[in-house]
TrEMBL record:
Keywords: Coiled coil, Membrane, Transmembrane, Transmembrane helix. CDD domains: PAS (cd00130). The chain crosses the membrane at residues 28-48, 206-229. One of its GO terms (cellular component) is membrane. The lineage of its organism: Bacteria, Pseudomonadati, Bacteroidota, Cytophagia, Cytophagales. Residues 484-528 form a coiled coil. InterPro entries: GAF (IPR003018), GAF-like_dom_sf (IPR029016), HAMP_dom (IPR003660), PAS (IPR000014), PAS-like_dom_sf (IPR035965). Pfam families: GAF_2 (PF13185). Gene3D superfamilies: 3.30.450.40, 6.10.340.10, PAS domain. SUPFAM superfamilies: GAF domain-like, PYP-like sensor domain (PAS domain). GO terms for biological process: signal transduction. This is GAF domain-containing protein. Residues 266-316 form the HAMP domain.
Amino acid sequence: MADKNSRNQEQNRKLNIKNYVRIDFKTLQGRISIGFIIIGAFALIMLVSSNRAWKNQIEDGKNLIALNKNSNTLVAEVQQLVDLTTILTFRYVSTEDDFYKNDLERWWADELYPKVDELDSLVREYGDKNVITYTEELKEHLPKIKKTQKEAIDNLNYSILNSDSTIDDILHLTFLRENIQDRLQMAEQEAIQDIQDAERNIPLMLIIEFIIASIISSIIAVFIIRSVLKRINFLKSNIRELSKGNLPDNLEESEDEMNSIIKGINELIFNLKGITRFAEEVGKGDFNTKISVFNNEGHLGQSLADMRNKLQTVAEQDKRRVWFNEGVAKFGDILRKNDSSIEDLSSSLISELVEYTDSIQGSLFIVDKENENDIKIILKGAYAYHRQKFIEKELAPGQGLVGQCYLEKEYIYLSEIPENYVSIRSGLGESSPTHILISPMKLNEEIFGIIELASFQPYEEYHMNFIDKVGESIASTIQGLQVSLETKKLLEESQMKAEQLQAQEEEMRQNAEELEATQEEMERQSKEMGAFNQGVRVSTMVAEFNKEGEILDINNQLQIQTGWSNDEIIGLDRKRLIIYDEDIDWTQTWNKITDSMSLSASGTLIGKSGNEIPIIAHCIPVSDESGNTAKIACIFIKKENFQ
């Protein structure tokens, strides 16, 4: 019984299938079935062939785009590497550091020439004669630039790098690079256009296939097509407009079986209009346009959303790169034009730096290492609220954030500024800055200065990289300027010392002549004085005393008059020999003689036997080799000689 039921069910299924599909020409159903089979086979063949052709075309276009992008990237890298070698040449000429020279050779040998060879291989694979010609000219032009750099290194001469011929070489290199990139860009656009044409042709091919299938099916099942012909023609005309890139108004919906198709077409029209608006905004350079096609789902919706995000990223990166490069070039020009005074250079740099980074305040400190035991960080330039500020400020290493930055040799970034940190206020009542960036001007790990910037807006990483790059250039210039100023100072000191030495030589010559005349006069006076002294010592009485008032020596005449001998009286107190009429303390007497250079007083000499001799004493100081008073010499003249 179960087997019988199973056979009946299988037979019913076969009968049901025959109700829908019959392979014969006797019935309309069979003809329609055969027609649909033929249409299906034909459509399959068309789809497979067109799909394969479309894929091959797109794949070839993508390969060409990838090849162009690689070539474009390589030619840009060649330009950048040439710029890098030029910078290294400047560095070597300015510092004479073999590190830069060796690094320069390495970049040429290991990076630049291999990339040029790789570029040559790619453009030959690409096969464009113009690109190949420009590339060959680029290869022939590079050794000339390298030769110029070597000449600058050998001669240690900046002017070679700044000569008109060198600049022409760089400009010609840029011309070749731009021509190669332009030609590659044109090829890439052509490839993209081919891909887009292929994509646009897909609906057309599908429509053609659909039309062919419709014609065949119409011949086979004309009575079926007549019932829906009007609606099909309506849909067909609108789809054809869409295939041509024209976007019709939304189709009027109906209540028949075609309504779901109309809704789909209306939704497609709506999304294609969104794509059109997006393309127009992108063409204007506005990459921030919001787009929601197919709710950002599916391949097309997600691809367009991803494309917008990537375009935004590329545009922002390009904007930052241009800003960075233009800033480096701008401040390089400022450094070249202001090379006479650190003060003028600092003022010009900080004002331009504040404006270029959209900061509100800025300070530039220079490190003074004239005294290695007392390093100073001196404020040389300040700029705030679009005006130059003249402030005197001096810090020590480790003092404040600037001093801390000097010790750490790394930038300091604050988004929460300590209270009262900013000392410059706006006269218009503006708020204080909310972000601080403090960056060292560092060259070969040596700090030459500190840059301090304040802003209302956060500083991004590319800001910090830019400040670091500019700081390095400023440090290099300051180093050269300091050496130049020190050399100038030493030259001036040398000239001044030479003039002083010449004046001293002239003065010494005159002094020598005067000294010679003085020596002759002194010799004459010495002879006269010797004779005079000898006469005095013979005819007058002379005694010498020390600071304590002790007798040091008496002459022969005094020994005869008093009866004292030198051996007996030396070391005795002065009062054993003389008593002044107005006797005062010997210390006072000593001071008077020393201050006045002489002293005259009346007194009485006391002989050994006690006899008294009234005298007039004349005392003078006697100096030692150092010019200090060593003793007092007194000449005694009898009063009777004055009567």
